Structures are given as structure tokens and as C-alpha cells.
Amino acid sequence: MNRHSNVLTSTSKFLSLVLRHQPEVIGMQLDSEGWLPIDELIQNTNQHGRELTLELLHEVVASCAKKRFSLSEDGLMIRANQGHSVPNVELNLDCTSPPALLYHGTVAPFLESIRQQGLLKRSRNHVHLSADIETAKKVGARRGKPIILTVQAHTMHESGHAFYLSANGVWLTDSVPAAFIEFPE
């Protein structure tokens, strides 16, 4: 990786930390929908010893393959599209009907717990599901050899569970009861 690529990756990870988990590391607080004013974000980031410019921020947003961040329509605010562990952030996504099947990537050590409790959001605000197996494999591979769970999303939705589609294509729900999960043999 070249130096510029390293800067983009490092900045993306930093923005994920601030916009999803710990805005207080730069003395900020997300609004109720997860937004931060860009000018204050840049100023506070620089005051806390990390260099951030408007140009770099825009490049990270544009180049992030996972489309983790969104800019407000007026371009003055930024937020993470999903993955928040900060309490009381409501993305105000519309409840929508999911496809018949969605997928979740995990690893073997978590299977017994999932069989007993289903998929829980734990410290996040939602359980994250993928529309395709390949994405679920990538998610699971972050922790080891991926195991793909198939979620009967449409049936679950018909049973009264709400689903939301984030701006970057990740499906979100509050939990997935084990009865709606197909486990691999």
C-alpha cells in the first residue's frame, strides 16, 4: 500500500470510531440521527492531534467501497450509515419489506449461542444482515473461517419483525430469533 492509501484507510477507521462508537474521543456528541457538523468534526479532530481536511474527508467518503458514510444534502453534516453503538441514535430509516432470504456471517465459537438466543444486536443498535452470501462471507472472515447463516427474512417480516435498509445496502433489524435461522450442516 502506498502512503496515500494508508492515510485513507487510517482516516476511514478513525471516522468509523468517531461516527459509530466514540465521538467523545474528539469532544463531540452525535445528534439524535447520528450526524456531526463537518466543520466542527474537522476542527475537533485537528485539535486532538490528528490531521483532517475537508478534501481528505470527501475523498474517504467517495472512495469507501463499503459506503460507510453519508453527507447531508447540503454537504454540511456527515454520519455513519449503520453500525452505531452510541445509544439513542435513530437513523430514521423507513421500515421496508426484505427479500425472502438474508445472510449473516459468523464463526464457529458463536454458533451455540446463536442457536440458543438467535442473533442479538449486543452493543450495536441493530443486527446487520447481508443481501448476498459473498458479503456475509467477508463479514464472517474478519473473525476467522466464516460460517454463513441464512435468515428467513420475509417470513420473519410477515411475523411482525421490522427491517430497515441502510444507505449502503446493509439490512438492519432488532434481533433474529433462532427459529428464523437456517444453520449449515
Helices and strands in order:
Elements: H1 3-21, E1 36-37, H2 38-47, H3 54-63, E2 69-71, E3 77-80, E4 102-106, H4 111-117, E5 119-120, E6 127-129, H5 133-141, E7 147-151, H6 153-158, E8 164-165, E9 171-173, E10 175-176, E11 181-182
Antiparallel strand pairs: 1-3, 2-3, 4-7, 5-10, 6-9, 7-11, 8-9
Helix pairs in contact: 1-3
Q: How helix-rich are the residues, as a percent range?
A: 25-40%
Measured by DSSP, the beta-strand proportion falls in: 15-25%
Strand order of the largest sheet: 1-3-2
Find the structural class using helix and strand composition.
alpha+beta
Between the first and last Cα atoms, what is the distance in angstroms? 39 Å
Q: What's the overall average pLDDT, rounded?
A: 93
Taken from the alpha-carbon principal axes, the silhouette is globular
| CATH architecture level-2 label of the largest domain | Alpha-Beta Barrel
Q: Tell me the series of helices and strands, N- to C-terminal.
A: HEHHEEEHEEHEHEEEE
- What name does CATH use for the topology of the largest domain? ADP-ribosylation fold
CATH top level label of the largest domain: Alpha Beta
Number of E-state strands = 11
